[in-house]
Write a structure and sequence with these properties.
alpha+beta, about 170 residues, four-stranded antiparallel beta sheet
């Protein structure tokens, strides 16, 4: 969405001023805590993974160690989704969209649960980024960029973790 200023956005697409201030504060705090100043001022392109590892090893914190150790876990993906930049996209799923052909067998391989029951119990959540469908992406340095409109299905487990179960 092109906008000259935040004030030209529709009201339902804007954050409240308190949220803006909170995000600026949180970002500044994170940069300080993670000591990312060197990353932000990095002028060269990274040419290999060792350069990224070097920056990580010089600026380790408790938070960065946790992310490093858990980033591949489904439960951490769900946590990041819920606590990320746009948690308002997540909605309780009452029925699957017609263009999202997910079956019980695909999701619950043990056969002990079914999507319909889990939806009735309020344990299935959907993130539908259909608003992005058809948005023309930028051209950066002469290369066309692409934008997708994903569907993400998440399941709240009995131990209150939000686990991804299907992504299209």
């Amino acid at each position: 969405m092109k906008a000259g200023a935040v004030s030209s956005l529709p009201l339902d697409a804007r954050f409240y001023i308190t949220k803006d201030i909170e995000m600026i504060y949180t970002a500044a705090k994170a940069i300080t805590e993670l000591k990312l100043k060197e990353w932000l001022e990095w002028k060269d392109k990274w040419t290999n993974i060792e350069e990224i590892q070097y920056l990580y090893s010089c600026h380790r914190t408790e938070i960065s160690d946790y992310v490093h150790d858990h980033w591949k876990e489904d439960s951490f993906f769900g946590y990041q989704f819920l606590n990320g930049v746009n948690p308002m996209v997540i909605q309780r799923c009452q029925s699957l969209p017609a263009n999202f052909p997910v079956t019980d067998r695909m999701v619950f391989k043990d056969g002990k649960q079914c999507l319909e029951d889990e939806m009735k119990n309020g344990n299935i959540f959907l993130c539908d980024y259909k608003i992005l469908d058809g948005v023309k992406a930028n051209i950066i340095k002469g290369k066309q960029q692409y934008l997708v409109a994903p569907l993400v299905l998440l399941h709240r487990t009995p131990d209150d973790k939000l686990m991804p179960i299907a992504i299209q």
